[in-house]
Amino acid sequence: MDGLSTFTITNTGSNMTDVTKWTLTVNGEAVITGEIQLGTGEAYRMGFAVYKGALALTVEQRPGYPGAASASATIDTSGCVIEPTANSETSEPATLAYAGTGRNEKGELYATYQVVCGTYAGAIRAEFKFVDGAIRSESGIQCGGTLTVPQYTSLIVLYDADGNQLAEKVPPIDISTPPSFIMPFWVYLPIVVK
Are 150 and 128 in contact (CB under 8 A)? Predict the structure, then answer.
């Protein structure tokens, strides 16, 4: 979807009383791990733009719950036309490394990223573009610092002190609604003749 390898985690059971772990592997190697907690019927969609190869997202079942110990889905991006950005963080002037997700005091989801610098070492300004078209900036960020990215952020762009673009990142996308929301808003019904 839009150049992203997209996975949707859906809770089809009761409200989760605590977090459970998820892991993204690329060609068999774990590259990102995180935690998730969903209410009944909630879904969380994540898109990953930088990886090429066999991607698998595995979600662990919480101990004591019936069913399989984990659930997994796979995507193979080897034949995709859109080329991913550099896999090596140091080959770009600066980039963002995913560090996890959490909820603020209002219960709203957010993602945390660490600013990783390659060829650039000065102050950084981050610009957050939201799905509703709003834009917010945060400046004075240093290499090695962290960014808290609110839910519904569609793009993060990093700039140097002179306003030159260093990098951009598409964060995991939170939809917080059942997966039926993703489907088209129309339904084709069969024609029944009596």
Answer: yes
Q: How many CB atoms lie within 10 A of CB 122?
A: 13
pTM over 0.70: no
Render the burial of 31-49: b for 16+ CB within 10 Å, e for the rest: ebebebbbeeebbbbbbbb
- Model confidence pLDDT, tens digit, residues 47-104: 776 677 888 999 988 777 767 778 888 888 877 755 554 444 445 688 887 777 777 8
List, in sequence order, every residue forming a beta bridge with 97; answer none if it has no partner.
Answer: 114
Query: Beta partners for 10?
Result: 43
C-alpha of 26 from chain center: 15
Distance (Å, whole) CA 40 – CA 170: 27
Report whether 120 contacts 89 (CB < 8 A).
Answer: no
